[in-house]
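Structural prep section.
Before we set up the soaks we want a predicted structure of the protein with fe (ii) ion in place, mainly to decide which crystallisation condition to try first. Input record follows.
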Amino acid sequence: MGILDAEVSVATHLSSTVKAEAGAALWERFQQVRSTSLHLIEPLSEEDAMLQSMPDASPAKWHLAHTTWFFETFILADRLDGYRIFDPAYRLLFNSYYKSLGGHPLRQQRGLFSRPPFSSVLRYRRHVEEGIGRLLAQSPAAETLELVELGINHEQQHQELLLTDILHAFWSQPLRPAYAAPEGCWQPKHAAPHRASSITESITQSITQQANQRRWVAHPGGTVEIGATSHGFAFDNERPRHAVLLLPHRLAWRLTTNAEYLEFINDQGYQRPELWLSDGWDTVCREGWQAPLYWEKTEENWIEFGLHGMNPLNPEAPVCHVSYFEADAFARWRHARLPLESEWESAAQPRAIAGNFLESRALEARPAFASAAAGSVDVSNSPKNAAEEIAMEGRAAEETQMFGDLWEWTASAYLAYPHFRTAAGAVGEYNGKFMCNQFVLRGGSLATPASHIRASYRNFFPPHARWQFTGIRLADDG
Ligand SMILES: [Fe+2]
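Run finished without errors. Recording the tokens verbatim:
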């Protein structure tokens, strides 16, 4: 063996070792994410798992099957020698929207899929998991590892959708069952039955307290970079990283609360067309919106439906289940605006990714200062620039709610970044073709797995959508 041959041999060995280690790490992550999906359906009956309460939502059973279909269709079918397709009919049945694969059922029909039975979907999952295990044990090519990582992140996206879809399904039926009891979770301050007057009183007190806590983080403006670097996993819509010019602006220190949103409602916010975009006002009139989705007014007070069922509104918790139209109208009423996604990302980049995620098992958005006494962080009302914020990590990161709790509507249309390119083949349909008529949301929510979120992450929904865990962070021009 010549010296060159020896070098090639060492390089080959190192490369296969690295690939084996990468495969082992990915296998561990794959198993963890797959088991989380099964954990999420534990509170559901098979009948619950069939519910589809509107075309935008999908049954839990479909989510379990479709995430499995993704691994089989995009990875195992072409990349694992000797792999047996579990059932050829599933290729069409559990395709969501990938047109180049030859077709898929109408989205609104997913609630009709009583066949295959739930047990077959679980066997399908185990069959595909075994296949992924065999594939990862073979030190697959880097491209295959990247597809497995994509499949893992795809399943994490569907975990959040599974929760938002079952929430809508449970809210849509007369008994309005709770997905989960609050035991073991963070206890809502007003979970216990209250006299009506005590809640009104506490909301009034809360408004006063919160007025004192309306703090802003200022940015002096300048050129910043946003978007994912070429290292590590990110969706294609987060790339390429590029420069953006920001003008001086400020972002609210925390999310808008229920009490603050109630001020908007009580000031006839839903009855004043001058506060709304034209499409938003048409939607308010057509749908009869008077409050966020899942809010109901009793004789004296507001109550809201969540994964813990119907509960009195917590005035200190962030307002949830608002559309872009509502977020925009609220901001206009406050003489403010929504952040641009570039402003949001620039503020988020130096922060630790900490917050109220799926792993906290709270299953509801928390007040900004739920885990720490208000004012415990040294932040004055005077403007601070982004650099000064870098030191405030850990607990401070949670208090700002930049990550977790609720997805934050931005004023940015969901568009391609400069020089954006979709991936080749059917998987290229993942994100790029939706870059029309949607707005970007940032930061993740109470239902987002912590390992799934990043500062550069771009979620997107149409402006009328409000069944996701969506909230409001205000911005202004400084
Ligand atoms: Fe999907």
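Observations: The mean pLDDT is 88.
Flagged for discussion at group meeting.
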